Every structure is written in C-alpha cells, then in structure tokens.
Amino acid sequence: MAVVSTLLVIAQPNPIYSVLLLICSFVALAGLYVMLDAPFVAVTQIIVYAGAIMVLFLFVVMLLNVAREGAVAEAEAASDGGTATARWFGALLAVAMALELAWALNRSRGIAAAPATGERETAWSVAEIGKILFTNYAFAFEATSVLILIAMIGSIALAGRHLPEKKPWRG
Amino acid sequence: MAGLNHYLILSGVLFTIGIAGVFLRRNLITILLSIEVMLNAVNLTFIAFGHFLGSADGQIIVFFVVTVAAAEAAVGLALVITLFRHMETLNPDAFRQLKG
Amino acid sequence: MLIWIPLLPLIGFLINTFAGKRVPKEISGAVASLAMLAAFGVSVVEVVALIGRAPDSRELMQTVFTWIASGDFQVPLTLRLDPLSALMILVVTGIGFLIHVYSTAYMHDEPASEYARYFSYLNLFAFFMLVLVLGANFLILFVGWEGVGLCSYLLIGFWYQKPSAADAGKKAFIVNRIGDVAFILGVLLAFVRFGTLDFQRIAAALGPLAPEASFGTVSLMALLLFIGATGKSAQIPLYIWLPDAMEGPTPVSALIHAATMVTAGVYLIGRNAVLFSHAPEVLIIVAVIGAATAIWAGAFGLVQNDIKRVLAYSTVSQLGYMFLAMGVGAYAAGIFHLFTHAFFKALLFLGAGAVIHALAGEQDLRNMGGLRRELPMTYWTFLIGSLAIAGVPGLAGFFSKDEILYRTFASGHTWLWLIGAITSLMTAVYMFRLVFLAFHGTRRTAAHHDTHLHDAPRAMAIPLAVLALGSILAGYVGVPEVVGGSNWIEHFLEPSFMPPAFEGAAGGEAAASAASHSLEITLIVVSSILALAGIAIAARFYLKRPEIPERLAAGFPGVYRFLVNKGYVDEVYNEVFVQPIKTLSENVLWKGLDATVIDGAVNGTATIVAETGAVVRHIQTGSVRAYALSILLGAVLMVGYYLWR
Question: pTM (2 decimals)?
Fold first, then answer.
C-alpha cells in the first residue's frame, strides 16, 4: 500500500492529490512502525508528518493555486531540450541508485538473514524513549530546538509580506 | 513475520521513487514532497535496524529527522512562496538567473 | 581580593573613557583619583595581611582563570603577591594616587574631554603597571609590560597637536619595541628550556643547579631579558627615549618616567633574581651597563638647561644605579633604591611641574631664578627632594644609595664603586645647580610671568608635602645594621630573590657583612662627604661665582658642546641605524621587494583566478535541476565505489 500510494504521489499531475496520497503513504508507514515496536515514532509520524507538515503543504498549494503541470509546462519543456535531457538523465541515475541499493542488499543478505540478536519482546515505551532522549541525546535535542527556532524565523523572514521597505536579505 | 530484508527493500523502493520524483516532476512543491518521501524511506531503515538490533537509537534518530524535516519543509515552502511571487511559476527549470 | 587591585583602576579607565566627555572635569578627576585611592586601600590591606604571615610563607596567590591552555602549555591568569610585588604595588598605587591628585590641579586648563582622556590614560597605565608587578608568569608580566608601553606612548604624545610631542611618543614606542623583541625571545627561550612560564617554577627548576660557568642557555636568557629591561628602564644603549619623553605632561613624567614604569626593568631583574644569579657573566654586563649609564647620563644632566631634562637624565642615572645594584647581586638594595627613588623623583618632578605651572609653561632654567620667595612651598619640598637624591645623610636616598655603593665595593668591583661614587658627586652637583638656578639668585623670568606667579594650589601642595615626608622617611625601613638599624626591607624582600624552599643562603651573607662593618662605615662617611661636596661645588659655581661655569665651558668647548648635545647619541643613532634602514626600506624593500615580488604575486594570483573563472563559468548552467543532478550523480558514484571496492 505504501508503494502504490507513493508511486501515485509522483505520478499525479495535481499537487493537491499528491499531498493527499502522500498522507496515505505516511499512514501506511506508520503502520509498519507499529509492527516494528515503535509506537512512539508511529504516532509522531502521523501527527507531525501527516498532520502538520502535510497541512502546511496543502496550505501552500492552495495559496499559490497553481494550474496543473499541463500544457504550459509541456510547451516550455519542448522548447528546452536541455532540460528534458537532464530530467531523463536524472531518472536514469535514479534507476542506477535503485540497482546499487539492490546490490547492497544482496551483499548484506548474510548479515540481515542472521537471527537478530537483540530483538525485544515488548515495544519501546514512550517513557523509555524520553529517558534516552533527555540523557544521552540532550545536547542534540537542544540543538534541534534551536534549529527549529531558526527555521521559524527564517521562514517568516522569507515569506513575510508586510515587512518594512528595507528588507535586509536583499542587501 | 516480515524480516529485516523486506523492510530494507521497501525502503529502497521508496527512496528510488523519491529520487525519480525529484528529477521527473516540474513542480517545486511535488519535488519537496519527493524529498519527504526520501526522508521517510531512510526513517524506515532506521526503525527497522533499531528493531532488529534491539536498540532505541534508531527511533531517536528518526525523531530528529522528523524535526529537521519539519524545519526544512517550513523554510522550503517559504522559499517556494517567495520564488512564486517573483517568477509567477513553480517550474524549477525556469530559475536560471544563477547562470555563469 | 588581589584581582581588585588592578581592576579598580581599570574600572576608572572605563568610566572615564566612556562617560568622561559628558561629565564635568571635577567628576572625571575624582573618579580616577578615587579608583587609585581604593586600589591603594586594597593594596595596603593585602600587604598588611602578607606581613602578618611568617617570613617564609609570605605569598598570596589568586588564579583568576586559565588564559591559554594548549597541551602542555598552560598559562593561567594568576596574580601573586610576594614581598617584591607588595613593595611595587604600594609604590604604584600610593604614588600613583598622589600624582592623580596633583594632576587634577595641574591639568586644570585642559578642556573637559581632554581632561577625561588624560585621566583615563593614567588609570589605564596604573592597571597595566599593577598587572605587570602582580603577574605570576612571564606572559601576564608581558601583558602589563606592553600595556604600560602603550600608555607611555599615549601620554607622552598627549599633546598630539605638538609635533615634537607626537615624535617623542613614537620614539619612546619604537625604542621600547627593540627591547621588547629581545624580551619576547627571552621568554620563548625560557619556555623552551623550562617548559613553563611561571616565575616560581623557573626559579625552583634553577635552584639546585650551579651557576653557569660559561655562556650557555641560561645566560642567553638572562641577557635577552636584560636587553628588554634596558629598553623599558632607559639604559645604555636604549636610554635615548626618556629625555624626549619629557614632552608629556609633567605629572606623567613623574609617574611613568620616574617613579614606576621605568623601574619595570629593575623589577624584571629582581623578579628573576634566581635566573640572573645563575648567569654570572650577564650579571657583570648588567653591572657595567648600569654604572656606565649612571655616569654617562649624569654628565649630561650637568649641563642641560631644560628643568625637566635635567631630571630625566637624573632618572636615567639613578636607574643605572639600580642596575648596578642588580648586577653586583644586591637585589634588595636595588629594589630599595627603586622604592626611595620613586618618592624623591616623583617629588622633584612634581616640584618642577609646580614651577612650570607657575611660570605658565616656562621650562628653561636660564629664565627662572629667585623663585624661592614666591613659591615657598615648592621650594622647600624641592629642596628636600634634592637633598634626598644627593644622598645627604638622614634622607631616603642616602640609605639606599649608600647600600648600593657598599655592596658594590664589598663584591670586589672597586672600579664600579668608583664610578658610582663619582656619579654620586655629580648627582649632588646637578641637582643643586637646578635648585640654585631655579630658586636662588636674581630673577630672570620674563616680565609677563610675574603677574600670575603663584605657589602650588592645594591639590598640588598636598602631594608635594606627602612626598617630601616620604623622601625623608622612606629610607628608614632600610637603615643599615651598622648604624643601629635593622635593615628591615632587605630581610623582607629576601625571600623574593631566593628559589622556593632554598634555605640557608642568607646565613652566610649575614656573616660576611658582619665582618666588614668598619668598611661600611668608611664608605658611608665617604659618600656623605661626596654629597656635601657636590652641594658645596654647586653652591660655589652657581651662587657665589656664576662666571666659573661659563669660563669652564669656554675653556673646554669640545667637552661642553659634547655634553650639551647629549653626546651626539641621537645623531649617531640616526646615521648608523635610522638612515640605513630608511634607505633599505625605500630602495630594496619598497621598490624592489614590494613593487615587484609581492605586488607581482598578488596581481598574478588575481589574474589566474580571473582566467580560470572565465573558463569554468560555463559549467554553471544556472539550472537548479542540473545542480541536483550533480549531487545525485555524486551520491551514485560514491555508493557504487563503496560497493565495488
């Protein structure tokens, strides 16, 4: 289900559908996470990704209200051979990447097939995750919070419409 | 019960789909979505390895990846909005002012 | 607590720098003076605490923070108070405070912003000087060392609109730089040799070693440090900046160029007494240079007509005395002279300042005379200072100078003693020439000065009085044992010159001095006679028979011209060092090296970059997708490489 919906994400001409399908894909992945004894990440996935980030995407899509990649874009592409070449070369590289990944999997099969040593019977509880997060990874945690703050300020500065005349990022 | 390999295969497929998306689509928003897909593919590997090695570190890293992805999405979308205001298009091929 | 001693003047400096222009003069002067007074108070408290301890544990330490930590190289910002630095901080803060008070009156005609600038520099100077004497390792000392050099430059050139003042500032700075190069090399060598820059650790490492028989690393180190000291303390060959430094305001000359900063070199040697004791050959150099400077500068002092220059040469000469003491191993005697000299030389400069102030800037002795009646306060204090420096028995200079001469003679350097004794005579002559020319005889002042001729105002008179008192009494901390004193200061300072935990050395010395009491008394009598004789000569020449010096000058025109022109040293230096360097700089370095090699390299680099850029720019398509593509290509290749490997 994840594969199908993800494939559709990039196949969709209309970005709104893409976003909705991606939510589908994320929910499917969340299910997999639950199967992998990671309920906390699964919930985070649904709330933050499917909930928050995707809503943000939807907002932007609707705000900009772009026509689908239709006739206009096709015409542009036709007039620009170089771009098309680049795109198909990119796709080729993607396939190469996939092949490499498959190769890697093949090589590491021995390791992966071996019985997992530390597999746990019970799922990781949120309390355990929290404890590790705030002890071993406390610094990284704080650093992320600063990163988010910077991202907030940055996006406001970039997208803000009603700023005074003298916009610093334009020099 | 699915083994580690199955998850890794799934992750590889998703990752490739993400790459293909970045290069094939001509809409900046869709490209950003494809990047999210790639991030998720990586998350999946982390979780899977974490599970099979009995370690919580994988989940912690995923947590951080999600946070960074949120930040990246916010900034990325802000850039998209600004670009759209300037160029009236979302086609990345249209942005070539950087040509040397 | 120690940190507050330098910190208080620093606070004063900051206040005066940032707020000084906006507040009236009275406040900026008061802030600066109060900062010094507070620092003096803290110093007294600390020193009293120090004296309260047992003699062998007289040491207070405070590590503020680790300044540099790089592997084995640790430089903590440590302040250490031991007897030597205790004496120095008392001199710096105490005399510094008096001079601040004096300056509030002396600089009164300056506009408010200049006034604040002046006091901020003075405070900054005090800060650096205190860092210098309190620092527990070479690097901290060096910070202070360079800092006082900077402040000296700023204050000499305080009246920067006057070209001669600006030039004098530059001269002082550059001449000091020459010494500082040697100083830095010495410090580096110390680190290479001992792996530490801490004075005590170096002394402890040296303690068990025997003095170097031949000229080795330790000697080289000591020599380099001594060259640094000659720069700061105005010794041959680097003394030339000090007379020119008199272009600065007179209180500055008193504080920096007489009482404190110029003694930093003496302090440096005292601080590293153990090091110098292990380099006997360098000690001889120090002693010879000191004696030579003493007589050389004293001779110039005899004929100068500028009141401040006479005092400047006198300072150089007295510093020579201190180095002489250091060189014969009488460290405590040298520091003792430093201590007493600080009092009477500051007094003399401030007295000269009062005269100059009264005469609205007149500095030429030939235009003074007969000021005794109009400036009684200045006259009496100046007289006390002159008596003290001349070495008249009972005043400060007598005890310290006599101690130096005695120790020089006792160490077997008869020739150096002779030079010192002659210098002592010369000191008395030129000081009393000054007194008689300025205060006695007939009035030669220009008529327009007479109207506002006034004695020192109270803010100037009080420091004069206190310093005069100090000039009388300061010597009594070091009354030699032979005349019934205890020579307290010597015993107080002694631990600073010994390596830590190195007992027993002092005992033998005491026995040696006991054996030569009769010698000491003889020498005391001799130097007293010399002092009195010098005064008598001056009185005869400049009071009774003023035509004698003129006839002498006419009789030996060559000698006289040589002395008046300060031995042509500046001219010789100009020909030998300055002109060749200028020529070298202009023809070889500028036109040869700079224009072709360096400019060529710079332009060549630019050309290469430009042309490469012209070729490479075609890679930049400007297409975002192309950039993403190259990233992906890189990723694919990298993964492929690791798989294929």
Answer: 0.67
